[in-house]
Design a protein that fits this description.
Blueprint: H1 9-12, E1 22-26, H2 27-34, E2 50-54, E3 58-61, E4 64-68, E5 77-83, E6 86-90, H3 98-112, H4 126-131, E7 134-139, E8 142-146
Parallel strand pairs: 1-2, 6-7
Antiparallel strand pairs: 3-4, 4-5, 5-6, 7-8
């Protein structure tokens, strides 16, 4: 199985090397990529492309979850990997850099702890990601790794 956070060329560029391999993708993301002007068209509908269109959160295998994290694109998704030694989230471009994730995490925690408005906002899907209690979050274009 191949998972991409979204279908921009710099994230799906090697997918043609995995013809006939299932690629779970949010239906919204695939539709946007197929409209044209979104990415390199040949990287989307290549010979042997085998998309499994999903809508919303999906457990793709024991301990592996795809969580919608729209923002960078409407169909962006993150991969949650649960393991005995903790959970790792491959966040792609859910946040461009680890410090943006930190800001959302702190805003979420402040609200949870009862900070009265005005308080910073956070991405609405942070609630779901944080229920996995991640020990590490990795990002597509930032070498920094978030750890609690």
């Amino acid at each position: 199985m191949v998972t991409n956070c979204h279908l921009h060329f710099d994230h799906c560029g090697n997918n043609p090397l995995f013809a006939h391999t299932p690629i779970p993708v949010q239906a919204t993301e695939l539709a946007a990529a197929r409209r044209g002007g979104y990415t390199i068209d040949g990287l989307v509908d290549f010979p042997g492309a085998t998309y499994e269109q999903i809508t919303g959160e999906t457990q793709i295998a024991p301990g592996l979850w795809i969580i919608p994290t729209p923002g960078h694109t409407d169909g962006h998704q993150s991969l949650v990997v649960q393991h005995d030694d903790g959970t790792v989230i491959l966040a792609g471009q859910a946040h461009d850099v680890a410090s943006h994730f930190t800001a959302d995490h702190l805003a979420h925690r402040a609200a949870r702890d009862g900070l009265t408005p005005p308080a910073p906002s956070w991405q609405p899907w942070m609630d779901r990601l944080l229920t996995f209690d991640p020990r590490r979050v990795l990002f597509a274009h930032d070498n920094s790794v978030w750890e609690p």
